[in-house]
Input
Amino acid sequence: MYAATIRKLVELADQFGVVVIAEGVERTQTMENLWLLGVECMQGYLFGRPAPQITLWDNDVVNLSRALEPIAAVPALCV
Output
């Protein structure tokens, strides 16, 4: 039942030019099943731990690029 729903969601997303991103992928089997259903972008503990939360105040915008440097170094799993 879930597989048919995911497959239809991916099909509709393709028609509208939208990318489907699966969240909460924690097991290899889940990743493989999603890939077979057409999901090409995934995130979750299988790929890495979440980055620390960043809180910005009015005068912290200058530090934003420094805060995001470690995040930019993490590769995305999208084809």
